[in-house]
Design the sequence.
């Protein structure tokens, strides 16, 4: 390990203690699946998972592996591959505490965290069961309105870690995030951001405007490791597409606890050739 | 009824024999729904569709083509038709800024008061059937003037009398800030409108090949039915050509599986 640059995803995963509040982005942002498998290998437990604002395979696998105590999310879905089987099972048997939200409410909580303020007001939600189910959200009168104007206040969300996969990093730990600007708020709100990248490059991404405008500065970063195809089997930006055959086999396996365990044995924890090759 | 502008636009007016191709046996339901959605977007300046929305996405892209450049379209998940440079939160900011004129919501359950349930069936939180979650619905439904409710399944298990969980309500009390709400409901059987004062849906048109009775049999809530219910207007030949030759390729960028299923000829030609 040199500075922020780690030699492996397992070395990054070792930074995350049991019980941590961990934020993960939506699938379009870039998902650190290699790091997620390393977390499951390490056997992390009792996570409070915050999804900005939804999650998919990453959340389903962490839940299935027993790593998650509480999830705060606007949705968990495998998209065109259907519902998330381990999530559905854990909600059904009560082993997972779910804090249902709506997408902009999680964005607002993260933005409050980014700005270091206690809460953010947001329109909508009043009269919904989403709001009714959340005793940590409050409705207040808009103090700037002469008439009656109730508005919802969302408390700041301040994760211990944000986990992302990005296209490249330099050796200083600056991360190229391109168009995925939600990472700025996510990293600002989180104590540190752990990053996997397709490649680590020479030079300094902050020196050139063309890359600097799409760069998360290293000051937010707790560690970075190279992970080629690090979002696999998910799609990553315009770089590569979803491994459809693998997703289909995951969905079939994860329908039962036994099938899911067999999947983990083969691709994550088994130490077999396929798990090693995957990283 | 013949003086209705809806009926007056019927494609049967065309004498061109080629227009016979737009008869229902050649027209796919997806193409009719794309046409209908595009019609509902007329006059909008900025529209977006959400995740897993190939037919709404196709409707948006057709509406943009028909607007002659007046409409901007954001297709979630698209690289070519992405208008956001400030991350995923920007869509929600547009809505609160009053810039987003139309959006689409589905629902595992939708009830007669236009309440939507995207969370699950049974008692919350340990639902008997758990769906993904509410997504942006508990916000966008309040702030987008034309929310089009869209489901590809028209059954009594979807269109229920009362939802088990209100992801987002169809109407709000007067003190609640609300500039948006249900504008139309589109299904493979029909188009409905919603009266927010009466909190009730009414039948606008029934798609060719289906009947009012069929709609009522498959709808679990009460709806108002006018004495004369028009047939949904079919796309004309020119519109169908645009859908098959242009919109098919545009939507394939984000939804290749959908495009391969619905537009196999266009995909093979490309």
Sequence:
């Amino acid at each position: 390990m040199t500075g922020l640059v780690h030699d492996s995803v397992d070395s990054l995963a070792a930074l995350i203690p049991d019980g941590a509040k961990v934020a993960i982005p939506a699938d379009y942002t870039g998902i650190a699946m290699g790091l997620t498998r390393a977390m499951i290998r390490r056997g992390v437990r009792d996570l409070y998972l915050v999804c900005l604002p939804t999650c998919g395979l990453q959340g389903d696998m962490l839940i299935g592996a027993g790593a998650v105590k509480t999830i705060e999310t606007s949705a968990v879905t495998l998209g065109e591959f259907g519902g998330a089987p381990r999530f559905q099972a854990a909600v059904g048997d009560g082993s997972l505490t779910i804090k249902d939200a709506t997408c902009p409410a999680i964005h607002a909580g993260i933005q409050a965290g980014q700005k270091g303020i206690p809460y953010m007001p947001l329109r909508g939600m009043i009269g919904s069961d989403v709001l009714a189910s959340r005793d940590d959200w409050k409705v207040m009168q808009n103090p700037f309105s002469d008439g009656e104007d109730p508005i919802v206040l969302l408390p700041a969300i301040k994760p211990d870690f944000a986990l992302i996969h990005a296209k490249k990093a330099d050796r200083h730990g600056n991360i190229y995030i391109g168009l995925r600007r939600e990472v700025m708020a996510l990293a600002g709100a989180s104590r540190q951001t752990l990053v996997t990248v397709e490649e680590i490059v020479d030079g300094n991404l902050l020196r050139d405007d063309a890359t600097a405008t799409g760069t998360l500065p290293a000051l937010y970063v707790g560690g970075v490791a190279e992970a080629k195809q690090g979002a696999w089997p998910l799609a990553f930006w315009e770089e590569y597409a979803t491994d459809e055959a693998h997703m289909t086999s995951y969905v079939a396996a994860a329908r039962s606890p036994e099938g899911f365990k067999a999947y983990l044995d083969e691709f994550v924890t088994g130490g077999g050739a396929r798990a090693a090759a995957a990283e | 009824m013949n003086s209705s502008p809806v009926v007056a636009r019927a494609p049967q007016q065309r004498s061109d024999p080629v227009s016979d191709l737009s008869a229902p046996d050649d027209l796919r339901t997806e193409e009719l729904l794309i046409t209908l959605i595009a019609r509902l977007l007329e006059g909008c300046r900025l529209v977006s569709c959400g995740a897993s929305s190939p037919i709404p996405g196709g409707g948006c892209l057709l509406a943009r083509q028909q607007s002659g450049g007046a409409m901007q379209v954001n297709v979630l998940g698209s690289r070519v038709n992405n208008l956001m440079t400030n991350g995923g939160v920007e869509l929600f900011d547009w809505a609160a800024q009053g810039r987003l004129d139309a959006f689409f919501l589905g629902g595992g359950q939708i009830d007669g008061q236009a309440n939507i349930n995207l969370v699950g069936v049974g008692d919350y939180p340990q639902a008997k059937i758990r769906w993904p979650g509410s997504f942006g619905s508990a916000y966008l439904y309040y702030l987008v003037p034309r929310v089009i409710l869209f489901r590809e399944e028209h059954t009594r298990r979807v269109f229920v009398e009362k939802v088990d969980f209100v992801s987002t309500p169809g109407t709000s009390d007067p003190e609640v800030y609300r500039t948006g709400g249900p504008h139309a409901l589109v299904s493979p059987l029909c188009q409905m409108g919603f009266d927010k004062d009466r909190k009730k849906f009414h039948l606008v048109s029934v798609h060719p090949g289906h009947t009012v009775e069929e709609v009522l049999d498959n709808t679990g809530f009460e709806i108002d039915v006018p004495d004369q219910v028009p047939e949904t207007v079919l796309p004309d030949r020119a519109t169908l050509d645009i859908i098959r030759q242009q919109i098919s390729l545009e939507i394939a960028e984000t939804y290749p599986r959908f495009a391969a299923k619905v537009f196999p000829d266009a995909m093979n030609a490309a």
Observations:
- The first helix of chain A runs from residue 9 to 13.
- The CA atoms of residues 133 and 229 of chain A lie 39 Å apart.
- Chain A has a mean pLDDT of 96.
